[in-house]
Design goal:
Layout (H helix, E strand, L loop, with lengths): L1 H23 L3 E7 L6 E7 L5 E8 L2 E8 L6 E6 L2 E8 L2 E7 L8 E6 L7 E2 L7 E6 L6 E7 L2 E7 L7 E2 L7 E6 L5 E6 L2 E6 L6 E2 L7 E6 L6 E8 L1 E7 L7 E4 L4 E7 L5 E8 L2 E10 L10 H46 L1
Antiparallel strand pairs: 1-24, 2-3, 3-4, 4-5, 6-7, 7-8, 8-9, 10-11, 11-12, 12-13, 14-15, 15-16, 16-17, 18-19, 19-20, 20-21, 22-23, 23-24
């Protein structure tokens, strides 16, 4: 029985080791930086393709604007200005995708636009009068993911930059928000009914990651593909949390005495830009993130369970041997006692 017990202790140690290794691989925040600090509202940041700059929305004095600043918050320069609302930008190799909402029309729907560089007039990509929001480039800038209105609901769609091949991916007949590609564009994460979901790029295999009474919003897939950052009000205010694409290791990454929303990973995975809300003002912050995806080893509980099963079988076999041995000993004792009784009768 000692062998069985030692084997069980070994398995327990292995499970603790795997759990410890997984905990050590959780991304951690090493520093927080405030990048904007004006009386205007500044929010919804997106990294440039080389991670040297950020584009973000400014609620300016004379309208809404898209601004660009350096990584450290310096050189803040206005990129676009409009009397219409501008936001939800995503900066790719082919240009900056963004959403514009008409301010002075009866049908104040959102349209998707692209700013393809300095001196180039922005081009409208929306081709109908339905509400279209949250555009997102795929990994090689050949497809655009977005949410589009169907009747009173929002569904997930894709199209090519020339507005061809428009494809509907979801049919929830509800409001689906903030779809975002995985790093290889094979999967999509989105928010539906306050929870996070993932699906294949063709709209199949929808899997729910969270299931609670809190709001889980603004999902953003890490470049290594191992984590999804999002904002959640589980702790009261909105914090930045992370979760595995399979729904495991759901934990808080950034928790401060203010709301944190709209996380966006840098392309090298070492930084996370996000929006804070405090004292009736929105500002852009950035977090330095330590993440080492190369050293991440997913838990492998199956072999350990198999080992436990083998040990249980061994224990069962030993129990059978003990019972059989005990029966033999009892039989020998009975035979011995019988012989003694017979000898006493002869006397």
């Amino acid at each position: 029985m000692r062998k069985i017990k030692l084997s069980f202790i070994f398995i327990t140690i292995m499970l603790c080791f795997v759990s410890s290794a997984t905990a050590d691989d959780l991304p951690s925040v090493t520093a927080l930086f405030q990048l904007t600090n004006s009386s205007m509202e500044e929010y919804d940041p997106s990294w440039s393709p080389d991670d040297s700059e950020l584009v973000y929305t400014v609620d300016g004095r004379y309208g809404y604007e898209l601004w660009i600043m350096d990584l450290d918050g310096s050189n803040q320069v206005m990129h676009l200005q409009s009397t219409d609302w501008l936001g939800q930008s995503d900066w790719g190799e082919k240009g900056i995708l963004y959403t514009s909402q008409y301010s002075f029309k009866r049908d104040r729907h959102h349209d998707i636009w692209i700013a393809e560089g300095e001196g180039v007039i922005p081009r409208q990509l929306s081709i109908n009068k339905t509400d279209q929001q949250n555009p997102s480039w795929n990994h090689n800038n050949t497809k655009i993911l977005f949410q589009g209105r169907v009747n009173y609901d929002h569904e997930i769609w894709t199209m090519e930059p020339d507005t061809s091949n428009i494809t509907r991916l979801t049919f929830y007949q509800a409001i689906v928000e903030k779809p975002t590609w995985s790093p290889d564009s094979s999967r999509i994460v989105y928010s539906f009914n306050g929870d996070l979901w993932v699906m294949n790029a063709d709209g199949s295999n929808n899997i729910q990651l969270t299931n609670d009474s809190y709001e889980q919003l603004d999902p953003a897939w890490s470049p290594c593909g191992k984590w999804i950052a999002y904002s959640s009000n589980e702790n009261g205010d909105f914090d930045i949390r992370i979760i595995r694409p399979d729904g495991n290791n759901n934990t808080t990454l950034i928790q401060e005495s203010r709301d944190q929303t709209q996380p966006d990973w840098s392309h090298d995975g070492t930084k996370l830009a996000y929006t804070t809300y405090q004292d009736l003002n929105l500002d852009v912050w950035a977090a330095a993130i330590y993440i080492d995806p190369e050293n991440y080893t997913p838990p492998t509980p199956t072999p350990l369970k198999t080992q436990i099963v083998i040990d249980e079988e061994a224990e069962s076999n030993i129990s059978r041997l003990v019972i059989l041995g005990g029966a033999i000993v009892i039989l020998v004792i009975i035979v011995f006692i019988s012989k003694i009784i017979k000898g006493m009768r002869k006397k």
